[in-house]
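Predict the holo structure. Ligand: zinc ion.
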Amino acid sequence: MPISESVKKDSILIKLIPDIISKYRDNIISIFGIGSYFDDSLPSDWIKSDLDIIVVVKDLEAITKTNWIYNKKYKKIEYRNYKIWIAFNSLDSLHNQEIFEKESFANYKWALIDLKIPQNSKLLYGKEIRNSLPDLNSIPFNYDDILKRSLYHFEKSFQKIDRNESQNEFTKGIFKFVFYLCVFYDNDYCRTSIREITNKLEKLNLSERIERIIINIVNEAIKYRSANEFKTEFTKLRNDFVHYVFILLCNGTLHRKMDFQEIVLFLKDTFGGLVHLIRLAKADNYKCKTLEKELSRYKLWGSLMPEKSFYSNLRKFLSQEGWDILRRAVYKKERYKCHICGIANIQLEAHEKWLYDYDNSIQKLQNIIALCKMCHLNNHLGFSNVLIVEEKLDKKDLIRHWCQVNNKREKEFEVYERKVWKLWDLRNNFTWKIVDHNDNEITHNTKLYDLLKLIAQNYLK
Ligand SMILES: [Zn+2]
């Protein structure tokens, strides 16, 4: 059997393939190339460093076990700055998932997609067996497994000390994660080329299945593969993205819904435990961001002020007279309507809206808005509870207003309320620096004149 023309033209393959053939001779059915090295659709400046070869053999046991990894039929060679991965599969295993999983640590369906679809693989030597491989539609995806493979590379990225290796692992994780998204949202999806995957992501974004942030990160990863550098600060980019994946899991946007505790268990159960990712999943700042993202899907939700900041709000800094002037100006700015529910011709109250930067423990005054009494009470659930206990407020009224504004059912309130208190608990773990719009610190020592000037300039327009 002749070796293919593409092997003859390639200076690495022309050494590698005849070497494999001479070693395993009659046992070989075919040799395929998969992955980016064989992907002609990639940009010409793409830095190729991995080379993946699949050798399909008649008898796997006949292959000598030297240099095999994890007892599976894998071989890794380093040659001219390339990491060459040679995987051996028996033809039987490609037809039978159970046998395959004993022989290989790859994902069965993913491996078949790689091999069977001509756009994903190149026949380098031997028999064309792709048409005879099992029908892909009849095999279910193991989404847990595909997701875990992506997370594994994120974990490795944390482990690597060398910056380049670390970044490279991260991009591998990204590419695997987006493949997972493609097959999760479209069960018939079967291309592994990065270009095809990005096309698919664009379509998924257009149909609002995935957010733009995913396409942006893939584009960053693609650029990295050409320029060897990330434009955005890498550590933050990585942490934020891994956390974003956790958020998707929490929201139930992916193949299963997990809360943070379940995510930690899932990570513990993945490739011997992904310790760096577990640490990230347990970090308060990320938990807060997740909860806040979930809660902010409600039009009306209680963003409770942390305990330590109770006495650092404007109301406490200003005299009654100053506060009266301020709140009237706020009502006027809001055209005498509630900022959240829009109701007019009702008594209004001024409310300070704060932004929480959990990475830097900064609590920033974002806005001063006018709220109707019920929206305001919903924003201060702690105070509302006091009124409820004192029988000055009926909780039913509070919940009814919340349901009305958010267009939700009553039974959702309880779940929502638990999240509000959870977020408050977590916010209490930080020591907050309180700042204004321009990042200037607001303290008890801020002069009243400066405070009023600041409010007039930034919050009353
Ligand atoms: Zn309102």
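Residues 338, 340-341, 343, 371-372, 374-375 surround zinc ion (CB under 6 Å). The radius of gyration is 29 Å.
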